[in-house]
Amino acid sequence: MADRAYPGTGITVHYDRTRCRHVAECVRGLPLVFDPERRPWIVVDNERDPLLVAEVVRRCPTGALHYELDDGPAEVPDPVTTVTAVPDGPLLVRGDLRLDLGDAGRMTETRAALCRCGSSGNKPFCDGSHERIGWRSVAVTDREPSGGRPHSEPAVTDD
């Protein structure tokens, strides 16, 4: 994990650039704290309320951002695990996740963008390779109600 810590008053934000897909939830949520044009791009103390910073960090769908409160609870996973397939992109997963990383061991996580195209150099996480190779997902609406494929054309699915 390529993690960098950005300490502030009451909270430390951690950033893993290898997992960032530039969704920019952080930038939209607190542009004075998260500014990709500035160095350092995260200045936690530009917001006085560490709980507000934590709330915005939890919006990061890829898990590239995490936080530790100095005097508070650790980040709590969503109570229900959800999986959202991004059209022509990764699976966005939220919840109490336990990932088996093969030789790299196991990790627990609250949010992740998982590769669907098979070409990521950071598996199981998405690294944007789907854009480079022009990978396209198959829309659920292209399937018959039974889960089968339309009979008019053969197709390779991504699932």
Which helices and strands, and how do they pair?
Blueprint: E1 3-7, E2 11-16, H1 25-29, H2 50-58, E3 65-69, E4 82-85, E5 91-100, E6 106-114, H3 129-133
Antiparallel strand pairs: 1-2, 2-3, 4-5, 5-6
Oligomer description: single chain
Residue stretches low in confidence (pLDDT < 50, at least 5 long) are: 149-159
Provide the number of structural domains. Answer: 2
What is the CATH class designation of the largest domain? Answer: Alpha Beta
The CATH architecture of the largest domain can be named as 2-Layer Sandwich
Distance separating the two termini:
27 Å
Please give the order of strands in the largest beta sheet.
1-2-3
Count of distinct strands: 6
Biggest sheet character = 3 strands, antiparallel
Radius of gyration, Cα only, in angstroms?
18 Å
- In CATH terms, what is the fold-level topology of the largest domain? Alpha-Beta Plaits
Helix count from the secondary structure assignment: 3
SS-based structural class?
A: alpha+beta
* Rounded average pLDDT: 90
Helical content class: 10-25%
Percent of residues in beta strands: 15-25%
Shape label: globular
Give, in order, the helices and strands: EEHHEEEEH
